[in-house]
Amino acid sequence: MELDPGRTEETCPVSARRNVRGLWVVGCGLLVLMPILTWGQGAKTEDLPARATYLQALNDFQQGRGSLQNLFTLGRAAAREQLESVIAWDAAMAAGKIPKKRFEPLLPGFHVGTAEALYVFADSNFFLELARRRGDETDRRFFELLHQTFHGSTSRLYVESITDTTACYHLGSREFISLYRDWSRFKAGAPKAYAETASEELQTLEQTLLVATCACGTQEVVDAGFEAFLKTFPKSPIAAQARARLDRIHNHTSDIQFRCGQELNLGQPLPYGVPTPVP
Known about the structure:
The longest helix is centred in the N-terminal third of the chain and has 27 residues, at 68-94. The chain has helices at residues 29-33, 36-40, 49-62, 68-94, 124-134, 137-150, 174-189, 195-211, 219-232, 239-250; strands spanning 110-114, 118-122, 159-161, 166-169, 268-269. A hairpin with a 4-residue loop joins strand 3 and strand 4 (166-169). The strands form 2 sheets. Strands 3-4-5 form a 3-stranded antiparallel beta sheet, with no helix packed on it. A two-stranded antiparallel ribbon has the order 1-2. The protein starts with 28 loop residues before the first helix and ends in a 10-residue tail after the last strand. Helix 3 (49-62) packs antiparallel against helix 4, helix 5 (124-134) runs antiparallel to helix 6 (137-150) and helix 9 (219-232) runs antiparallel to helix 10 (239-250). The protein folds into 2 domains: 1-135, no CATH class; 156-268, no CATH class. It is mainly α.
């Protein structure tokens, strides 16, 4: 799952905790108490129109019609709609009310979380397979990079889950730097391809480096990570801010907790899945 770097991302309901849209996610034990029959009845098309559009486009694509980029765009719209639906159900149940609209707990091509963490993330395995079968070179490069970022899971490679709703961050790690380089190159080389997602991934990497306070590594490891980032990307738009944060580490005035979560099992709350909120 994912992240607020400084964080940040998460939520929770009433009896279980409380859920506020636009904040972060946290548990919702009440969701799992809902009758399975109700969930299985399925949502009406008018309740989830983006879902219906996406599923039709997915069927068309599998029949040889339509582009993968358009399908993914429709899928993201359906994912946002799905997440809003899950959050609405959670909020209603937390308030002791019966949700007015039904929703589907599953969305083909996406991971949907309805228990402790509420999220909807693209399944990189699913879309990479579609790209290999029917995509062009740009499609394949994009989904290979998305898979490199998520590895088919709901957590980015540089995010290490501590609990279902909290995590620590590998700031400036080798994988972090590799992803920043590759997403930067993809965006520069194909500025109109999957532009929203490419921008989000770069923004998430940058915000993680600048505001995450729960670092998985020691001070020495994080220090080295910042140095490596600045050496590799001296002209990055966040270079000055990253340097200022590194100076605070050197001056022992940083707000970063090193080896976060390894001793007290604390961590930063994770964010909703689609899209990842900016901290």
